[in-house]
Design a protein that fits this description.
Number of helices: 5
Radius of gyration: 33 Å
Helix content: 25-40%
Largest sheet: 6 strands, antiparallel
């Protein structure tokens, strides 16, 4: 009896990858890597923006707090007879009564701490709010990256863009408005000097330092409509109105005296 045996089959080794499959796999890996890199960069940029916004908000709050504390103790006249409150649209100087800790124990000043006058100045310069302490003369930056700042002063009847307590007494209120973003349509506040470009500096050293040509830098500083303080302005991103207690302007004091007579 003859037995039939199944045909002998040789088992082939596993099939290798073709060149097309390898290239496709590499393409997928590169695409995933690029996507992960972009996501990582976006996360870093978002974190940087959040930190910058946080520092900016804290700096604005510090500026408002300093302005409020100074206005609460403002005096109309300093120790040397100078105006206690003077200011314009971009800066304000306030002399306030109180004890300046830098003068305590300093016998050379000859000033009693009870009658001390401590003056500070807040100013907007080159996109920054800086504070200057007149005791030590030092200047410190409170916040940067701003577009515009405006101070205004109320006399009890209307707002004005400048003030001097030597002629008008203490203002009834002080307003500080802050814009962090550029205005629409490239509008520019009239009370802030327009950015200027030095043609020679831009053509010689400016291109190498900034990495851009003169035409691009000129377009960056192109300005549209100039808006005055009385014109309708974009809503400020931050605003603080500070009332000065018992503030009576000089003109109203004179009117009160005439009415009494």
């Amino acid at each position: 009896m003859t037995r039939s045996h199944p045909p002998f089959r040789i088992r082939r080794a596993g099939r290798g990858f073709t060149l097309l499959e390898v290239l496709l796999a590499l393409g997928i890996i590169i695409l995933l890597f690029a996507t992960m890199t972009r996501v990582f960069d976006d996360l870093v940029d978002a974190r940087t923006r959040v930190r910058r916004s946080m520092f900016q908000t804290e700096g604005i709050a510090a500026a408002f707090e300093l302005l409020t504390r100074s206005a609460d103790a403002a005096v109309a006249t300093g120790l040397d007879g100078e105006a206690g409150v003077t200011g314009d649209s971009v800066s304000i100087r306030i002399a306030r009564s109180g004890v300046a800790t830098t003068r305590l124990g300093d016998s050379s000043t000859g000033i009693s701490p009870v009658q001390d006058r401590h003056a500070v100045e807040l100013a907007f310069r080159n996109g920054e709010i800086v504070v200057r302490d007149e005791d030590d003369g030092g200047t410190e930056t409170l916040v940067s990256g701003l577009f515009a700042v405006r101070f205004r002063y109320h006399d009890g009847l209307e707002w004005s863009d400048s003030w001097s307590s030597a002629a008008s007494g203490l203002p009834v209120a002080i307003e500080c408005s802050i814009w962090t973003s550029p205005w629409p349509d490239a509008a520019w506040p009239a009370w802030i000097p327009e950015p200027e470009l030095d043609d020679e500096a831009s053509s010689d050293d400016g291109e190498a330092a900034l990495g851009i040509d003169f035409e691009e830098s000129f377009e960056e500083f192109e300005i549209g409509t100039i808006l005055e303080s009385d014109d309708p302005l974009p809503v400020p991103d931050h605003v603080r109105v500070i009332s000065i207690l018992d503030a009576v302007p000089v003109e109203r004091l004179g009117m009160a005296a005439e009415d009494a007579s």
